[in-house]
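OP here, attaching both records as promised.
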Amino acid sequence: MDGDHDPATAGVPCRRIPDGALEPADPTPGMSRRMAEHSDGMWTGTVDTEPGAVTAWHHHGEHETTLYIVSGTFRLESGPGGADVIEARAGDFIRVPAGAIHRESNPGDEASRAVVVRCGSGAPTVNVPGPAGE
């Protein structure tokens, strides 16, 4: 399929979204999300978590989510009772399946920042009272 493209978008220019243009978005207690863009099928932005912070339980509905850790330490609990724990540092990616109930925390001594890309439809964040199975 070399050379195939959509003529309707072939002439649309690329663009930059400066840091100052990001807007507060999708509140979940314990973290600060900023949205770069939300279009049909995709949400992009950043998430910052302060040292020692633990977020509320939530999921991202029908959105598949990938995070790239820019700085700090990022811990994610998921699975039944929140028993599955992963910890990521700068340069790591985290994959969160659609509908996976989870919460993040920052066990480090500096703020963490991640770049977030979500692909899907519906509400990008749904806060829930607890982990899966509870």
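Record two, same layout:
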Amino acid sequence: MDAMYSGSCLCSQVRFVVEGFSSKVANCHCSMCRKFHGAAFATLVSVSGLRWVSGESLLKHYTAGNGTVRSFCSECGSSLGFRGRNEPLSAIEIAISAFDEDIPVEVDAHIYTNYKACWHHIADKLPAYGEGRE
């Protein structure tokens, strides 16, 4: 059996496991991700083999004006993920901070840096893209 990686929201009522991860993991600096995560950027990863262990009914979804959807726990408010317009919940990109253990991913880029917070300085040498990956 493949390795399973578990995650949860702050109150632990929403729990999930995944089997694997995309090799592309970016820090997203768009204003929507910044506001949704309350931080300078959000770090999200596409996953495979996602299974909701508990609390799927507690998930709430916010659809932004551009059609993208952000999902969070309705009990504690934890930001859990993002999906594109018209994408099913199974296509959610998970916030890597929601994992309960170390996961085998490495951030490889900054995206939507045209919208980054003026008070945040990107100090690493990762590729930075003004919009999505170009």
